[in-house]
């Protein structure tokens, strides 16, 4: 957890690996997942690197594995998980695995090819059998269903009498192509081709795709050789399959018997081929996942080795970023890799100083990772910058719960989050790849926390599905009347509660008094209460954000920023906005129920504070006017402090450095003046050139700093901070606004839906209650638990990203992406 508050300390390390040990060492580092390698060959093309052939071979094996995986999935066979850890294969296993996959792919392709050929033969036999069966009636004399292609009916005796003198073509065509086929025949032959067809009842299987295809049997009768050639071309154009069909009944019977025998034999061969293919795929499915892992690891290792440099001693040199605390583990992994490879020379790791900004590494677990992802979505923290994630673990669900304050809805959300946590493994395996449900699974911990915090704030608001719970007796009375349970739960009761004449002086022990649920001035009281609480919480979080900036300044040794940024910023924020919080608290303590009518308005008090108006009726304590003048004057003085102090300091510091360099140049000049008279012209020219170079360097240094640019830059930040304090304070009022909207929507659903169903006492009302409750439940889930929760979540994101983090967080870093086999395995499973 230590690195969660601030990113890990990183170092740039240089590795010296022997060629025979490099593969094993990189494999060990990949299992460890603590090293991010740098590309030392950025100018070298990817196809010109040392291990490009090995990477290509791994790509080819990966292609073969994807083909095999597709075949296994198409057969409905489940691929077995690797289960335990699969180590990276040795380099010598590349040849064996490559040969094994090549043999398996060739065998599968051969089996598929044979099966497709057998299926095609089987289809042809089925089509020919359907032709022999369905065309039997076409040759029977007395059939009166013959038609020309122009759809004109012809009496059977007239046509059949000359049918044996005509040419004949029989075949099978797809059913959806028949209308166009018939029309084309009529146009080409001008109605001189006699067509008969019949649908095949059962669908046939396409040998290539395996899809069901509906076809029909047809017979064409024509006269003349030319017309027969045209008919055959039309059949080929419409991809119709033509088969011979004898006109003699005995020949057809004999042909039918032979085809049936061939179909039986072919069916037996097809079953054997299918069984052989299934056995092959079942055997492959047990090790397919292991092969995928091995190939991916091998490919990742060779791809990483392509990032290294090769020196003259056949030694591979690598540079990598790694956490300082994990150097011992990295050294141990290198030692183990060297021993595994059998190399005689140990691998060497040296720390290297670098001006490059290290990557940001925040070590997280499955609980803290969701909060870290929320922060990183705005921007990855700069190296060693204060990380807002640990504070968001509490503040994020709490601010959400303020806007979603309903104990009933919070309970439902907490139960849903608890269900996700309990069934975590099963749900990840089943729905981990789903885009929408995967997001819910990833945020299961934050959903659970948001539900728990919503229960807490809902009990403070005493709001459970828009109704109040009576934990204690009410502390209110009206004209001496003590409220009873029947008064609290009366359907049409309404009271106007005034502090000066209705309270008994004893506050409700916890949360809101349930009588406020029946008060006519409930909304106005809740508005005041929630608005003030939003201001208090918002300003507290902003002050905390400004305080966190101190840790950044101290860590990066920017002590001048403490004087020029932190002190004026905290004074400006405390003396104006935190003072407003003080006035709210003071007003709560000083003005009880009896003096509530004389309590001054906070808004008018703040306005008069800036106008420097002395109104005795608005004073809450002694010398308030003088205190407010001091606070306003000091806060206003902080603006020029923030605006001019830093640019002036930078200008003075720059001039001091410039004067120091100029003094160095003048000393050098005086040292050369003594010999100026005895130097020949060429040497004098050389001396003048060197002097000019030095002065030129000083001029460049002088041009590096521009006071105007520094003043503009500081002015932007000053204006942004001062106006931001105002806008951010107002932005926290969304806590009040969304809380009020959620409560009102919940009350509307109760009063307009469920209340009407509960008011029916008849038998029909009992039946209607089921439908009314179902509608109320659906609307509650869809509107309040989904839409309202999403709205509150997005507003909470805004409050953290802008209002809170802008006070101390820059988010200009780049993430630490270590070379890890675990990430490769997760990507493959997705």
Element layout with pairings:
Blueprint lengths: L1 H4 L4 E9 H14 L3 E2 L14 H23 L18 H42 L12 E2 L7 H5 L6 E8 L3 H12 L4 E6 L4 E2 L6 E2 L1 E8 L2 H13 L3 E3 L5 H37 L2 H18 L3 E2 L4 E9 L3 H15 L6 E5 L16 H10 L10 H15 L3 H16 L1 H8 L3 H8 L1 H18 L15 E2 L2 E2 L2 H4 L10 H4 L19 H34 L3 H32 L11 H10 L12 H50 L7 H23 L3 H25 L2 H25 L4 H42 L16 H9 L1
Antiparallel strand pairs: 1-11, 1-12, 2-11, 3-5, 4-8, 4-9, 5-8, 6-7, 10-11, 13-14
Features:
27 helices; 830 residues; five-stranded antiparallel beta sheet; extended; Alpha-Beta Plaits; alpha+beta
Q: What's the short version?
A:
With 830 residues, the protein is an alpha+beta fold. The chain contains 27 helices and 14 strands.
Explain the overall architecture.
The structure is a single chain. With 830 residues, the protein is an alpha+beta fold. Among the domains are: 136-244, Alpha-Beta Plaits (2-Layer Sandwich); 369-539 and 733-807, no CATH class; 558-727, no CATH class. It is 62% helix and 7% strand. It is built from 27 helices and 14 strands. Strands 1, 2, 10, 11 and 12 form a five-stranded antiparallel beta sheet that branches. Helix 3 (52-74) packs parallel to helix 4 (93-134), helix 12 (389-403) crosses helix 16 and helix 19 (522-555) packs antiparallel against helix 24 (707-731). The longest helix is centred in the last third of the chain and has 50 residues, at 624-673.
